[in-house]
Amino acid sequence: MRITWLSRVKPGSVLAQSILDAKGRVLLAAGMELSDSLMRRLQNRGIRSVYIVDPLCDDVRPDEVVSETTRRTLIEVAYENLNQLSQEMRTSSALRQRGLGQEVRKVVNRLLGEIGAHRGMAVPLSAVYDYDAELYHHSVNVTILSIAIGVQMRLTSRQLSDLGVSALLHDVGKLMIPTAVLNKPSKLTSMEYELVKTHTTHGFRLLSGRLDVPSHAAVVAYEHHERLNGEGYPRGIREEQHLYSRIVAVSDVYEALTANRVYRSGYLPHHALEFILGGSAAGFDHAVVESFIKCVALYPIGATVRLQTGEMGVVAATHPEQPQRPVIRILRDQQGRDLKEPYELDMCENLQAEIIECEI
Q1: Would you call 14 helix, strand, or coil by DSSP?
Q2: Three-state secondary structure along 186-213?
Q3: Measured between alpha carbons, how far is 130 from 56 in angstroms, rounded to an integer?
Q4: Phi/psi at 52 (nearest 5 deg)?
Q5: How far apart are CA 101 and CA 104, in angstroms?
Q6: Per-residue pLDDT tens digits for 51-80
Q7: Which of 24, 164, 247, 360 could crosslink 108 through cysteines, CB 3.0-4.6 Å?
Q8: In angstroms, how far is CA 105 from the centroid of its own chain?
Q9: Phi, psi of 262, rounded to the nearest 5 degrees
Q10: Are the C-beta atoms of residues 295 and 323 closer than 8 Å to each other?
Q11: Given phi > 0 = left and psi -120 to 50 = alpha, else beta, which region is 151?
């Protein structure tokens, strides 16, 4: 299979991976043949890329560090719990629903087991979803990456569980921000930006004092936009953030940069990594960044890429020690012609090769 821009998909192509909605339900199932009308509907929902079946890449399968079942359960739990928490806030309910935190922890521990079983494997953050599902998929991706970083940093099982719950709930305060502002396709005004920044304090208020979530969850919701150089928000504190907040901060920025948004396409993974590295000296925790580099799959298997030569292919394999230089199965030549006999180019051996476009 391979992932490619929806605009480049030909009618009759077959979907290779299901598309999920905000509740983790299947919006469009794998095996569905894509027609013009169906692709227009996907475009109208803000979906820019899809996984499709390609006979030349039958043996190319993304590494399943996290099973599809667990990912879907995480999205469902994120949707139900985040909305329940925000509903309590809106209604000023004194009767908080018990068991929310336990439900979150249960699925986070399941995720922890899967990532622990694949220790040493790079974690791909591939997911196809519409804009209505953005918050929930973002929260799940940040959770997956945060736990992977925590495993790399050798946190205890209890710490990893607390970290995972905190990461899944870190953006709950965004449900208190008008959707029109969050999904605005143009640049935010200064007033709108200040409004968006209040999601950290909303999240803190939503999670504070709950006996069913770790106390660190409220702290992470409050601090995940703080930076070690004092240039973050809401307080602009220096080097006082909790370790979990420092981990989620890196995961949050990387996921946000590489994901497609209503107002822009996602950044190339290595450009997002350069941003993280550039900020590690002043804004991000150096130890967290070092662990992040070792556990994230910059170019997920199945991603369609274009080289500086004009050649196009699919990521067929990755090198754990050099994730930025994968093995590419070349499908089109420099003139854009389909190859009858694709071949593989190992970027670790061909040091001149450079990826200039990545479809994820």
Answers
A1: strand
A2: CCCCHHHHHHHHCHHHHHHHHHCCCCCC
A3: 28
A4: -125, 155
A5: 5
A6: 899 999 988 887 678 888 888 899 999 988
A7: 164
A8: 20
A9: -60, -30
A10: no
A11: alpha
> What does the block give as tokens for 59?
């043996």
Q: What is the residue-averaged pLDDT of the chain? A: 87
Give, rounded to a whole angstrom, the gap between the first and last alpha carbons of the chain: 13
Q: Tokens standing for 1?
A: 């299979």
pLDDT at 288 over 60: yes
Q: Could you tell me which residues come within 8 angstroms of residue 19 by beta carbon, excluding any fewer than 6 positions away?
A: 26, 27, 28, 42, 47, 50, 128, 129, 130
User: Residue 300, preceding bond cis, omega within 30 degrees?
Assistant: no
pTM (2 d.p.):
0.86
Write the CA distances from 115 to 27, 63, 68, 162, integer angstroms: 26, 12, 13, 15
Q: Where would I find the H helices in the chain?
A: 36-44, 68-91, 100-117, 134-152, 157-168, 179-182, 190-197, 199-207, 215-223, 243-258, 269-280, 286-295
Length, in residues, of the chain: 360
Distance in angstroms (rounded) separating the CA atoms of residues 245 and 163: 9
Please state the rounded mean pLDDT for residues 138-148. 93
Q: Per-residue pLDDT tens for 95-123?
A: 455 567 788 899 999 999 988 887 767 77
- DSSP 8-state class, residue 317: E
